[in-house]
Amino acid sequence: MENKANPSKSLFDIDGKPEFGKSFPIALQHLLAMIIGNALPSLLLTNTLKGTEFAVSSNEAVYVIQAGMFIAAIATFLQLYPVLKVGAKLPVVMGVSFAYIPVLLAIGKRYGYEAVYGAQIVGGLVAFLCGLSIKKIRKFFPPIVSGTVVLTIGLSLYPVAIGYMAGGNGNPLYGSGWQWAVAFLTLVTVLACNMFGKGLVKLASILIGIIVGYIVSLIVNATVAPGFVNFTNVVESNWFTLPKIMPFKPDFPSDAVITMAIMYIVNSIQAIGDISSTTVGGMDREATDDEISGGIKCNGIASIIGAFIGALPTATYSQNVGIVSMTKVTARRVIAITATMIAIAGFIPKFGGLMMSIPQCVIGGATISVFAQITMNGIKLINQEELSMRNSTIVGLGLALGMGITSVPQATETMPEKLQMIFTSSPVVIATLTVFFLNIILPKKTLAQEQKEREEMDK
After folding, report:
1. In whole angstroms, how large is the CA radius of gyration of the chain?
2. Does residue 1 have a pLDDT over 50?
3. Which residue from 153, 177, 268, 274 has the highest number of Cβ atoms inside 10 Å of its Cβ?
4. pLDDT tens by residue, 319-329
């Protein structure tokens, strides 16, 4: 037990107070692992809506990135130091999540930012309620269900990444050889660092890939393709900003709200895995119900706060869970240093302007590997259960209906618009509904039971 007169300075004690010199390198690893991922969803949304009726100014686009930094810091601090049982009191890093991108893009393209933030507020409330009742609803999301959902998220993001690798919407150089060359160079760099690198190089593989792709883009811009890199946002951005209250007035279209609520339920179940992995990997014990409940409630509250300051939905960051599991460093003070650095980045709009200057082909080359990993994580979850005929049917139909219906938009043109949004805006929603209800309705049968049935038929 820790002596209050002589508190622990161990990196491996959750309540330890290690010296800054020991803490900083590990805190920096956590920062490098999450900071680009935290900015990319905001970049994807703002770039996707560029040129549409819902496009925002460059300064507003930069601010959305900055707001994502603010909310990541707030949410991480809340996980470390809970308030009124909101927070897991664990070394968990939070940030803006890739998982919501298909839904965010669908809502944004139909209704704009206001509906994104309105739906996010309701989604945050749903997540908070999930946290309160997680023990009751957890049984409805076994690996076969949650895995299919995660797999669908990964598959649905591939067209987004490929579009970015080609240069992004509205780019006059879309599909040119230079776009693809830089995109693949970025992808190869990420893979090389991830597969052959060690330590910081491996952890920061995406960051290194983006830096390499950006440097080559600068060379291309200066030699063969002027305009390849746009520095306008870097030049025009201020050096300092503060969080703004309601930069976008929330709107609440019912179909957008329902769609986002479904995503928050799914993400709440995924959070169980990250929180459990943190305690199992870092402390060799299972997570308690209070830790899981507090962690999910924290995500809900953080998302609500985020909507009011212009930040996108948050989630626990699996890559940072991996660092905790690998290093066994669980001292909350270390993650607090990370959160402080994230907050500092939020106060500097030049950072967001720099992110906006990264060519979309570089972003596509860096993120397609992330989306591929999401897909494989879904497959891993599915494989935790037997692939009996029953389970194969659930997975197959979930993917078939989710990916199939949304890939043929003209097939649903006669549907009321509200239903189109709920059921066809994102393959994730319809896949989630399909596997959720099939798992409840279809009788549970093991491979052995199915084999026995076939043997009885031969008698």
Report:
1. 22
2. no
3. 153
4. 677 777 767 88
The rounded distance, in Å, linking the Cα atoms of 180 and 176 is 7
Distance CA 334, CA 312 (A): 25
pLDDT the model gives residue 50: 84
Contact 436, 146 (CB under 8 A): no
Q: In Å, how far from its chain's centre is CA 357?
A: 22
- Where are the alpha helices (H) located in 50-170, listed in sequence order? 58-80, 101-111, 113-132, 134-137, 143-165
Token pair of 78, please?
A: 């809340």
CA angle 320, 26, 93 (to 5 degrees): 30
Asked if 300 and 130 touch (Cβ cutoff 8 Å), the reply is: yes
Q: Write out 245-276 in H/E/C secondary structure.
A: CCCCCCCCCHHHHHHHHHHHHHHHHHHHHHHH
Q: What is the pLDDT of residues 148-196, one digit of tens each?
A: 877 887 787 788 788 888 887 667 777 788 889 999 999 999 889 888 8
- Any bridge partners for residue 94, and if so which? 316
